[in-house]
TrEMBL record:
One of its GO terms (molecular function) is methylisocitrate lyase activity. Keywords: Lyase. Belongs to the isocitrate lyase/PEP mutase superfamily. It holds the Pfam family PEP_mutase. InterPro entries: ICL/PEPM, Isocitrate_lyase_ph_CS, Pyrv/PenolPyrv_kinase-like_dom, Pyrv_kinase-like_dom_sf. It comes from the Eukaryota. This is Methylisocitrate lyase. Its EC number is 4.1.3.30. It is an enzyme of class 4 (lyase). It catalyses: (2S,3R)-3-hydroxybutane-1,2,3-tricarboxylate = pyruvate + succinate. The lineage of its organism: Eukaryota, Fungi, Dikarya, Ascomycota, Pezizomycotina. It comes from Purpureocillium takamizusanense.
Length: 313
């Protein structure tokens, strides 16, 4: 085929872009990569993380429940709540992979298959499914209960089978909360069962010591392991460099954006109540806000179509 003909074909039928799931899968399997994913809880915090330039972001279930529902992370959020939130965040920049909490998978094998299918169609690159009972709670709260190891294995197997049927590259992360309920050895056994069932990444929730951190990475190698870095929770505060040295492949920071947002919002409201003024910085204009959330792209789309709706903005 002549070069000019080939070029014309490519212009008319451009090659499909790599999906975010495929990109995340390559990052996870690249021996030189280490993934730092800041937790985002809504579209605005996600936009800021993208503006800063992170290569991967994480949708926190606790943050979703708090921001979308105004409720604690006690199983209030349904599949529809989580899927819709994840779809919005994932599609702000489809080239940046989003890892999203999928709680327990929201039911038995058929519901878990539905969860995988919906997250896949929504553009989510990776998700984690845990072994807590359906009325779950945040992994860093006490009093948790977990299902049997066999039920956990079935959840992961159902997820893997659904991914295969969908022709998806979505990365399946198996999370166990059994460390707090049944001890380290049982938690490790559950993760090994999950890996045998086809999980791509292992996730030991609530790691308490460096010995446990190193041990789970060593025992599950070469399977990548994720560290959940919840400040002031069950896990000591470790940096990405420390996590990588321990043997982890991914580190997520679920509270990274929602905690400072709470402090800043509360301080501003208290300032208004006390002084009658907002104290907002003069450089934070409406245009700056809209620029953060995509004003320039919206203007470009309108202009490319021949419109002038946003001229002079």
């Amino acid at each position: 085929m002549a070069k000019d003909t080939l070029l014309s074909c490519r212009l008319l039928h451009p090659l499909p872009k790599m999906s975010a799931a495929t990109k995340l899968r390559q990052m996870v399997t690249d021996p030189e990569s280490f993934i730092v994913a800041p937790g985002v809880y809504d579209g605005f915090s996600a936009r800021i993380a993208l503006e800063v330039g992170f290569d991967c972001i994480y949708m926190t279930g606790a943050g979703t429940s708090a921001s979308r529902l105004g409720q604690p992370d006690l199983g209030f959020a349904s599949l529809n709540d989580m899927r819709a939130h994840a779809e919005m965040i994932a599609n702000l920049d489809p080239s940046t992979p989003l890892i999203a909490d999928a709680d327990t998978g929201y039911g038995g094998p058929n519901m878990i298959a539905r969860t995988i299918e919906q997250y896949h169609r929504s553009g989510v690159a990776g998700l984690h499914i845990e072994d807590q009972i359906q009325t779950k709670r945040c992994g860093h709260l006490g009093g948790k209960s977990v299902e049997s190891a066999e039920t956990f294995r079935q959840r992961i197997a159902a997820a893997v089978q659904a991914r295969r049927r969908a022709g998806s590259d979505i990365v399946i992360i198996a999370r166990t909360d059994a460390l707090q309920t049944d001890g380290y050895e049982e938690a490790l056994r559950r993760l090994q069962l999950a890996v045998e069932a086809g999980a791509d990444v292992a996730f030991l929730e609530g790691v308490q010591t460096e010995e446990q951190a190193r041990g789970v990475c060593r025992a599950l190698a070469p399977t990548p392991v994720l560290l959940n870095m919840v400040e002031n929770g069950a896990t000591p505060s470790w940096t990405p460099d420390q996590a990588r040295e321990f043997g982890f492949k991914i580190i997520i920071f679920p509270f990274l954006t929602i905690a400072p947002a709470y402090e800043a919002i509360k301080a501003s409201l208290q300032h208004l109540k006390k002084t009658g003024t907002t104290g907002i910085s003069k450089d934070f204009t409406p245009k700056k806000l809209f620029t953060v959330v995509g004003l320039e792209k919206a203007m470009a789309v309108d202009a490319e179509a021949g419109g002038s709706m946003y001229s002079g903005v």
